[in-house]
Amino acid sequence: MYSLAYPFALTLLAPLVGLAGWYAWRLRTRGLRLAVSYDSDGGRRFGMGWGVWVAPALMFLAGALAVVALARPQSLRLAVDESTGIDVVLLMDVSASMDAKDVVPSRLEAAKSVALDYLSLRPYDRVGVVVFSEDALTLLPPTRDLALVKRQISDLKTDILPKEGTALGTAIVAGIVRLEDSKSGTGMMVAFSDGGGNVGYGEPSSLAAAAAARGMVVHSVAFGRPGEEADFDAATMERIARAGNGVYVPSGDSEAALKIANFALRLSQTRKEFSQNRPVDEYPRFLAGAIVCLFLAGVLKFFGIYNLLSE
């Protein structure tokens, strides 16, 4: 089914048709460019060669197509939004304990690697970044510019904030604010942390539950080993995921990014939006046709081909 966004533009066809009629009458009455041919008996036959009409016809056709394009024809289709993108906030721990080497090459570098792997698996998500140590800071609100997100994550160091403490709860609150400010008003968070030395605003699992009550999901990916050189609290990370209706990925899991990405895919599939009669512009094909006609008419006139066709 088709419709026109600007149907009144078709009124421009009237003067165009009139101009074409006048031009045809002018050619016939003046007898321009008569072609001479011979019949089978050798007699001469006069008439107007069809070639003289080619270039003008192409030009008038180009004008007609341009007028139709100006009316902006649209097809009306039953459309389904197949976009799998959702709003995601990555909560990145940059406290001093993330410099620990019990995870190769370090906890922070391992966390960055998993985050970058996730971004490669989910190229259509709108992703924001919150960093935290003893406080939390939003580096980026959710954005589709994943190249920028990747650069920000790759450049993360433990010296960008005061290093002492792990303000997981504060980071979750920042994530809630960012998701509520986003277009969808919901989405998911992924906390990358060792979970140790918790400070800041509120108990992390309680705040994750508050996020879940708002329709958000909170995942956690742990980094570290118990009893090693720095704090590590796997239990806190697991409680966060459980309270946030998310996935807990233990330290050392090589499929961490894939597990989170698979959850994001399931989440996005439950939030597809259906829209009937979505207009799709069709004018580019008419505009392209007009350009082709003008080009051919120009070629014919420039090289005098239409004169040859008339002979």
| Classification by helices and strands | alpha/beta
Tell me the CATH architecture of the largest domain.
3-Layer(aba) Sandwich
* Number of extended strands: 11
CATH topology descriptor of the largest domain: Rossmann fold
SSE pattern, N- to C-terminal: EHEEHEEHEEHHEHEHEHEHH
Shape: elongated
**Strand portion, in percent?**
15-25%
Q: Biggest sheet, in brief?
A: 6 strands, mixed
Radius of gyration: 34 Å
Number of domains: 2
In whole angstroms, the N-to-C terminal distance is 45 Å
Rounded mean pLDDT score: 82
Helix content: 40-55%
Instruction: Name the poorly predicted regions.
Output: 32-40, 43-48, 78-82, 272-276
Placed side by side, the strands forming the largest sheet appear as: 7-6-5-8-9-10
CATH superfamily of the largest domain: von Willebrand factor, type A domain
CATH class annotation of the largest domain? Alpha Beta
- Count of separate DSSP helical elements: 10
Description:
A 6-stranded mixed beta sheet has the order 7-6-5-8-9-10, sandwiched between helices. A 3-stranded antiparallel beta sheet has the order 1-4-11. Strands 2-3 form a two-stranded antiparallel ribbon. Helices cover 44% and strands 22% of the residues. The protein has helices at 13-30, 51-70, 107-121, 146-154, 168-181, 204-213, 234-243, 256-269, 283-303, 305-310; strands spanning 2-4, 34-38, 44-48, 73-80, 87-93, 126-132, 136-143, 188-193, 217-222, 245-249, 274-281. It has 10 helices and 11 strands. It folds into 2 domains: 2-78 and 278-310, no CATH class; 87-269, von Willebrand factor, type A domain (Rossmann fold), CATH 3.40.50. It has 311 residues and is α/β, with parallel strands linked by helices. The two termini are 45 Å apart.
